Protein backbone atom coordinates (compact mmCIF):
# COMPACT_ATOMS: atom_id res chain seq x y z
CA UNK A 1 0.00 0.00 0.00
CA UNK A 2 1.33 3.42 -0.91
CA UNK A 3 1.96 5.74 2.04
CA UNK A 4 0.41 9.19 1.31
CA UNK A 5 2.97 11.87 0.39
CA UNK A 6 1.67 14.21 3.08
CA UNK A 7 3.06 12.02 5.89
CA UNK A 8 6.37 11.20 4.20
CA UNK A 9 9.04 13.75 5.19
CA UNK A 10 10.50 15.75 2.27
CA UNK A 11 13.99 14.14 2.40
CA UNK A 12 12.47 10.63 2.09
CA UNK A 13 9.98 11.54 -0.65
CA UNK A 14 10.51 10.15 -4.14
CA UNK A 15 11.59 12.91 -6.54
CA UNK A 16 8.88 13.88 -8.99
CA UNK A 17 9.21 12.70 -12.58
CA UNK A 18 10.25 15.29 -15.16
CA UNK A 19 7.25 17.36 -16.17
CA UNK A 20 5.36 16.72 -12.91
CA UNK A 21 5.01 19.46 -10.28
CA UNK A 22 8.13 20.34 -8.26
CA UNK A 23 7.60 18.68 -4.90
CA UNK A 24 10.30 18.37 -2.25
CA UNK A 25 13.62 17.74 -3.99
CA UNK A 26 11.92 17.00 -7.34
CA UNK A 27 12.60 18.72 -10.61
CA UNK A 28 11.23 22.08 -11.51
CA UNK A 29 7.79 22.22 -13.19
CA UNK A 30 7.82 22.03 -16.98
CA UNK A 31 6.27 25.49 -17.40
CA UNK A 32 8.89 27.20 -15.22
CA UNK A 33 10.19 29.37 -18.06
CA UNK A 34 6.82 30.40 -19.39
CA UNK A 35 5.13 31.08 -16.03
CA UNK A 36 7.66 31.48 -13.21
CA UNK A 37 5.96 31.01 -9.84
CA UNK A 38 5.82 33.93 -7.47
CA UNK A 39 8.27 33.70 -4.56
CA UNK A 40 6.44 32.66 -1.38
CA UNK A 41 6.16 35.30 1.26
CA UNK A 42 7.87 34.94 4.64
CA UNK A 43 4.57 33.93 6.23
CA UNK A 44 3.87 31.30 3.56
CA UNK A 45 7.34 29.81 4.02
CA UNK A 46 6.84 29.64 7.81
CA UNK A 47 3.44 27.99 7.34
CA UNK A 48 5.00 25.45 4.96
CA UNK A 49 7.75 24.68 7.45
CA UNK A 50 5.21 24.30 10.27
CA UNK A 51 3.26 21.84 8.09
CA UNK A 52 6.40 19.77 7.51
CA UNK A 53 7.47 19.85 11.18
CA UNK A 54 5.61 16.76 12.46
CA UNK A 55 6.87 14.70 9.51
CA UNK A 56 10.43 15.98 10.10
CA UNK A 57 10.25 14.94 13.76
CA UNK A 58 8.99 11.50 12.75
CA UNK A 59 11.81 11.21 10.20
CA UNK A 60 14.34 12.17 12.88
CA UNK A 61 13.07 9.43 15.21
CA UNK A 62 12.78 6.92 12.36
CA UNK A 63 16.36 7.43 11.17
CA UNK A 64 17.54 6.58 14.70
CA UNK A 65 15.18 3.69 15.50
CA UNK A 66 14.10 2.13 12.20
CA UNK A 67 10.58 2.13 13.68
CA UNK A 68 8.85 2.54 10.30
CA UNK A 69 9.88 -0.91 9.12
CA UNK A 70 8.56 -2.51 12.30
CA UNK A 71 5.33 -0.49 12.32
CA UNK A 72 4.68 -1.04 8.61
CA UNK A 73 5.16 -4.79 9.09
CA UNK A 74 2.84 -4.81 12.08
CA UNK A 75 0.09 -2.45 10.94
CA UNK A 76 -0.05 -3.43 7.26
CA UNK A 77 0.17 -7.19 7.82
CA UNK A 78 -2.25 -9.38 5.92
CA UNK A 79 -5.21 -10.89 7.76
CA UNK A 80 -7.17 -13.93 6.57
CA UNK A 81 -10.48 -13.65 4.72
CA UNK A 82 -13.46 -13.76 7.05
CA UNK A 83 -11.73 -11.92 9.91
CA UNK A 84 -14.60 -10.52 12.00
CA UNK A 85 -15.58 -8.82 15.27
CA UNK A 86 -14.66 -11.91 17.34
CA UNK A 87 -11.03 -11.13 16.52
CA UNK A 88 -11.27 -7.89 18.50
CA UNK A 89 -11.70 -9.72 21.82
CA UNK A 90 -7.93 -10.05 22.35
CA UNK A 91 -7.40 -6.32 21.79
CA UNK A 92 -10.40 -5.59 24.02
CA UNK A 93 -8.74 -7.65 26.79
CA UNK A 94 -5.53 -5.71 26.23
CA UNK A 95 -7.45 -2.43 26.49
CA UNK A 96 -9.09 -3.60 29.74
CA UNK A 97 -5.65 -4.43 31.12
CA UNK A 98 -4.32 -0.96 30.21
CA UNK A 99 -7.32 0.66 31.93
CA UNK A 100 -6.60 -1.44 35.04
CA UNK A 101 -2.93 -0.45 34.98
CA UNK A 102 -3.66 3.29 34.63
CA UNK A 103 -6.44 3.43 37.25
CA UNK A 104 -4.32 1.19 39.54
CA UNK A 105 -1.45 3.67 39.46
CA UNK A 106 -3.76 6.47 40.66
CA UNK A 107 -5.29 4.28 43.38
CA UNK A 108 -1.80 3.33 44.60
CA UNK A 109 -1.09 7.04 45.19
CA UNK A 110 -3.70 7.09 47.98
CA UNK A 111 -3.99 3.47 49.17
CA UNK A 112 -2.16 2.27 52.32
CA UNK A 113 -1.51 -1.51 52.44
CA UNK A 114 -1.69 -1.80 56.21
CA UNK A 115 -4.19 -3.88 58.15
CA UNK A 116 -5.10 -0.90 60.30
CA UNK A 117 -5.25 1.78 57.57
CA UNK A 118 -6.30 0.00 54.36
CA UNK A 119 -10.06 0.32 54.97
CA UNK A 120 -9.74 3.99 55.98
CA UNK A 121 -7.60 4.78 52.92
CA UNK A 122 -10.23 3.30 50.60
CA UNK A 123 -12.94 5.35 52.38
CA UNK A 124 -10.75 8.41 51.91
CA UNK A 125 -10.39 7.63 48.16
CA UNK A 126 -14.15 7.19 47.80
CA UNK A 127 -15.27 10.17 49.87
CA UNK A 128 -12.59 12.85 49.75
CA UNK A 129 -10.23 12.42 46.80
CA UNK A 130 -11.14 14.28 43.58
CA UNK A 131 -12.67 11.70 41.17
CA UNK A 132 -11.58 9.02 43.68
CA UNK A 133 -14.84 7.10 43.66
CA UNK A 134 -14.93 7.23 39.85
CA UNK A 135 -11.39 5.85 39.44
CA UNK A 136 -11.98 3.22 42.15
CA UNK A 137 -15.21 2.22 40.42
CA UNK A 138 -13.47 1.94 37.05
CA UNK A 139 -10.81 -0.31 38.61
CA UNK A 140 -13.36 -2.46 40.44
CA UNK A 141 -15.74 -2.96 37.50
CA UNK A 142 -12.84 -3.08 35.04
CA UNK A 143 -11.52 -6.16 36.86
CA UNK A 144 -14.74 -8.06 36.09
CA UNK A 145 -14.73 -6.75 32.51
CA UNK A 146 -11.19 -8.04 31.97
CA UNK A 147 -12.03 -11.49 33.40
CA UNK A 148 -15.12 -11.76 31.17
CA UNK A 149 -13.20 -10.58 28.08
CA UNK A 150 -10.28 -12.95 28.64
CA UNK A 151 -12.70 -15.91 28.81
CA UNK A 152 -14.54 -14.77 25.67
CA UNK A 153 -11.19 -14.33 23.85
CA UNK A 154 -10.12 -17.81 24.96
CA UNK A 155 -13.44 -19.19 23.71
CA UNK A 156 -12.89 -17.52 20.33
CA UNK A 157 -9.40 -18.96 19.92
CA UNK A 158 -10.63 -22.40 21.04
CA UNK A 159 -13.65 -22.56 18.73
CA UNK A 160 -11.64 -21.21 15.78
CA UNK A 161 -9.00 -23.90 16.38
CA UNK A 162 -6.27 -21.28 16.96
CA UNK A 163 -4.55 -23.55 19.52
CA UNK A 164 -3.39 -25.91 16.74
CA UNK A 165 0.00 -25.97 14.98
CA UNK A 166 1.87 -23.62 14.79
CA UNK A 167 0.16 -21.62 17.57
CA UNK A 168 0.39 -24.09 20.47
CA UNK A 169 2.97 -21.96 22.29
CA UNK A 170 0.71 -18.91 22.03
CA UNK A 171 -2.13 -20.94 23.51
CA UNK A 172 0.12 -22.00 26.42
CA UNK A 173 1.18 -18.37 26.98
CA UNK A 174 -2.55 -17.53 26.91
CA UNK A 175 -3.28 -20.14 29.60
CA UNK A 176 -0.62 -18.55 31.84
CA UNK A 177 -2.15 -15.11 31.11
CA UNK A 178 -5.55 -16.49 32.14
CA UNK A 179 -4.14 -17.78 35.46
CA UNK A 180 -2.39 -14.45 36.06
CA UNK A 181 -5.58 -12.50 35.30
CA UNK A 182 -7.46 -14.63 37.84
CA UNK A 183 -4.62 -14.07 40.33
CA UNK A 184 -5.01 -10.31 39.85
CA UNK A 185 -8.73 -10.54 40.56
CA UNK A 186 -8.16 -12.75 43.62
CA UNK A 187 -5.39 -10.67 45.21
CA UNK A 188 -7.14 -7.37 44.45
CA UNK A 189 -10.30 -8.52 46.23
CA UNK A 190 -8.62 -8.45 49.66
CA UNK A 191 -7.23 -4.92 49.34
CA UNK A 192 -10.31 -2.90 50.57
CA UNK A 193 -9.95 -5.00 53.74
CA UNK A 194 -13.63 -4.89 54.65
CA UNK A 195 -15.57 -7.82 56.13
CA UNK A 196 -16.51 -9.25 52.76
CA UNK A 197 -13.02 -9.13 51.24
CA UNK A 198 -11.45 -10.46 54.45
CA UNK A 199 -13.67 -13.55 54.71
CA UNK A 200 -13.76 -14.17 50.97
CA UNK A 201 -9.95 -14.20 50.89
CA UNK A 202 -9.82 -16.70 53.77
CA UNK A 203 -12.19 -18.97 51.81
CA UNK A 204 -10.10 -18.51 48.64
CA UNK A 205 -6.83 -19.30 50.40
CA UNK A 206 -8.40 -22.41 51.97
CA UNK A 207 -9.61 -23.57 48.55
CA UNK A 208 -6.05 -23.15 47.21
CA UNK A 209 -4.87 -25.24 50.19
CA UNK A 210 -6.94 -28.22 49.00
CA UNK A 211 -4.88 -28.63 45.80
CA UNK A 212 -2.93 -31.93 45.70
CA UNK A 213 0.68 -31.88 46.98
CA UNK A 214 1.34 -28.14 46.37
CA UNK A 215 -1.89 -26.92 48.04
CA UNK A 216 -0.60 -26.44 51.63
CA UNK A 217 2.56 -24.70 50.37
CA UNK A 218 0.49 -22.44 48.15
CA UNK A 219 -1.86 -21.38 50.95
CA UNK A 220 1.11 -20.79 53.31
CA UNK A 221 2.72 -18.63 50.62
CA UNK A 222 -0.47 -16.60 50.10
CA UNK A 223 -1.04 -16.10 53.85
CA UNK A 224 2.64 -15.24 54.34
CA UNK A 225 2.69 -17.77 57.20
CA UNK A 226 0.42 -20.25 58.94
CA UNK A 227 -2.07 -17.59 60.09
CA UNK A 228 -4.03 -14.99 58.17
CA UNK A 229 -2.71 -11.65 59.46
CA UNK A 230 -1.31 -8.22 58.74
CA UNK A 231 1.50 -9.59 56.55
CA UNK A 232 -1.07 -11.35 54.34
CA UNK A 233 -2.31 -7.96 53.14
CA UNK A 234 1.22 -6.78 52.32
CA UNK A 235 1.85 -10.01 50.41
CA UNK A 236 -1.37 -9.73 48.43
CA UNK A 237 -0.58 -6.09 47.64
CA UNK A 238 2.91 -6.81 46.32
CA UNK A 239 1.63 -9.76 44.25
CA UNK A 240 -1.21 -7.58 42.95
CA UNK A 241 0.72 -4.47 41.98
CA UNK A 242 4.27 -5.65 41.24
CA UNK A 243 4.74 -9.35 40.62
CA UNK A 244 1.75 -10.28 38.48
CA UNK A 245 1.40 -7.07 36.38
CA UNK A 246 5.10 -7.34 35.47
CA UNK A 247 4.63 -10.95 34.37
CA UNK A 248 1.44 -10.05 32.46
CA UNK A 249 3.19 -7.24 30.56
CA UNK A 250 6.09 -9.52 29.58
CA UNK A 251 3.75 -12.32 28.50
CA UNK A 252 1.44 -10.00 26.53
CA UNK A 253 4.59 -8.85 24.68
CA UNK A 254 5.47 -12.45 23.78
CA UNK A 255 1.80 -13.21 22.95
CA UNK A 256 1.51 -10.29 20.52
CA UNK A 257 4.91 -11.00 18.98
CA UNK A 258 3.68 -14.49 18.10
CA UNK A 259 0.35 -13.15 16.80
CA UNK A 260 2.20 -10.83 14.40
CA UNK A 261 4.79 -13.44 13.44
CA UNK A 262 2.37 -16.32 12.83
CA UNK A 263 -0.66 -14.32 11.69
CA UNK A 264 -4.17 -15.12 12.87
CA UNK A 265 -6.20 -18.23 12.11
CA UNK A 266 -8.96 -17.98 9.51
CA UNK A 267 -12.46 -18.80 10.77
CA UNK A 268 -13.18 -22.54 10.44
CA UNK A 269 -16.00 -21.94 7.91
CA UNK A 270 -13.66 -20.19 5.44
CA UNK A 271 -12.27 -22.73 2.98
CA UNK A 272 -8.68 -22.38 1.81
CA UNK A 273 -8.39 -21.44 -1.86
CA UNK A 274 -6.69 -23.98 -4.10
CA UNK A 275 -3.07 -22.93 -4.65
CA UNK A 276 -2.58 -21.39 -8.10
CA UNK A 277 0.27 -23.47 -9.52
CA UNK A 278 0.99 -24.39 -13.11
CA UNK A 279 -0.36 -27.80 -14.07
CA UNK A 280 2.33 -30.46 -14.46
CA UNK A 281 3.60 -30.95 -18.04
CA UNK A 282 2.06 -34.46 -18.28
CA UNK A 283 -1.39 -33.06 -17.56
CA UNK A 284 -0.97 -30.26 -20.07
CA UNK A 285 -0.46 -32.86 -22.78
CA UNK A 286 -3.31 -35.08 -21.59
CA UNK A 287 -6.16 -35.35 -24.07
CA UNK A 288 -4.18 -34.10 -27.04
CA UNK A 289 -3.13 -37.63 -28.01
CA UNK A 290 -6.69 -38.88 -28.14
CA UNK A 291 -6.16 -41.29 -25.22
CA UNK A 292 -9.45 -40.34 -23.61
CA UNK A 293 -7.84 -38.90 -20.47
CA UNK A 294 -9.41 -35.62 -19.46
CA UNK A 295 -7.39 -33.00 -17.59
CA UNK A 296 -8.61 -32.67 -13.97
C1 LIG B 1 -4.30 -10.76 29.24
C2 LIG B 1 -4.85 -11.63 28.44
C3 LIG B 1 -4.75 -11.67 26.94
C4 LIG B 1 -4.50 -10.68 26.03
C5 LIG B 1 -4.27 -9.19 26.32
C6 LIG B 1 -4.52 -11.28 24.71
C7 LIG B 1 -4.35 -10.58 23.52
C8 LIG B 1 -4.45 -11.16 22.27
C9 LIG B 1 -4.53 -10.44 21.02
C10 LIG B 1 -4.57 -8.91 20.88
C11 LIG B 1 -4.59 -11.34 20.01
C12 LIG B 1 -4.71 -11.06 18.49
C13 LIG B 1 -6.16 -10.72 18.15
C14 LIG B 1 -7.15 -11.82 18.45
O1 LIG B 1 -7.02 -12.91 17.89
O2 LIG B 1 -8.02 -11.56 19.27
C15 LIG B 1 -4.50 -12.66 20.61
C16 LIG B 1 -4.47 -13.85 19.93
C17 LIG B 1 -4.44 -15.11 20.51
N1 LIG B 1 -4.63 -15.38 21.85
FE1 LIG B 1 -4.69 -14.01 23.34
N2 LIG B 1 -4.74 -12.63 24.85
C18 LIG B 1 -4.90 -12.91 26.18
C19 LIG B 1 -5.21 -14.13 26.75
C20 LIG B 1 -5.32 -15.32 26.03
C21 LIG B 1 -5.78 -16.57 26.57
C22 LIG B 1 -6.29 -16.78 27.99
C23 LIG B 1 -5.66 -17.50 25.56
C24 LIG B 1 -5.98 -18.99 25.58
C25 LIG B 1 -5.82 -19.78 26.59
C26 LIG B 1 -5.14 -16.82 24.39
C27 LIG B 1 -4.83 -17.42 23.20
C28 LIG B 1 -4.60 -16.75 22.02
C29 LIG B 1 -4.32 -17.39 20.75
C30 LIG B 1 -4.18 -18.92 20.50
C31 LIG B 1 -4.21 -16.36 19.80
C32 LIG B 1 -3.98 -16.51 18.31
C33 LIG B 1 -5.32 -16.36 17.63
C34 LIG B 1 -5.31 -16.71 16.16
O3 LIG B 1 -4.30 -17.15 15.63
O4 LIG B 1 -6.38 -16.58 15.54
N3 LIG B 1 -4.97 -15.49 24.70
N4 LIG B 1 -4.44 -12.51 21.99
Give a quick precis of the structure:
With 296 residues, this protein is mainly alpha-helical. The chain is 59% helix and 0% strand. Mean pLDDT is 89; it is low at 289-296.
Question: What can you see in these coordinates?
Answer:
The protein contains ten helices and no strands. It has 296 residues and is mostly helical. It is flat, with a radius of gyration of 30 Å. The structure holds protoporphyrin IX containing FE (HEM).
Core attributes:
296 residues, mainly alpha, 59% helix
Alpha carbon gyration radius: 30 Å
Number of strands: 0
Instruction: Give the distance, in angstroms, between the N- and C-terminal Cα atoms.
Output: 37 Å
Shape category: flat
Q: Number of helical segments?
A: 10
- Measured by DSSP, the beta-strand proportion falls in under 5%
Helix/strand-derived category reads mainly alpha
Assembly classification: single chain
Low-confidence stretches: 289-296
Instruction: Note the run of SSEs as H and E.
Output: HHHHHHHHHH
Biggest sheet layout: none
Q: Determine the mean pLDDT.
A: 89
What small molecules are bound in this structure? protoporphyrin IX containing FE
Give the helix proportion (percent range): 55-70%
Annotate the secondary structure layout.
Blueprint: H1 42-65, H2 67-75, H3 89-108, H4 118-127, H5 132-159, H6 168-190, H7 195-209, H8 215-223, H9 230-262, H10 281-285
Helix pairs in contact: 3-5, 4-5, 5-6, 6-7, 6-9, 7-8
Bound molecules: protoporphyrin IX containing FE.
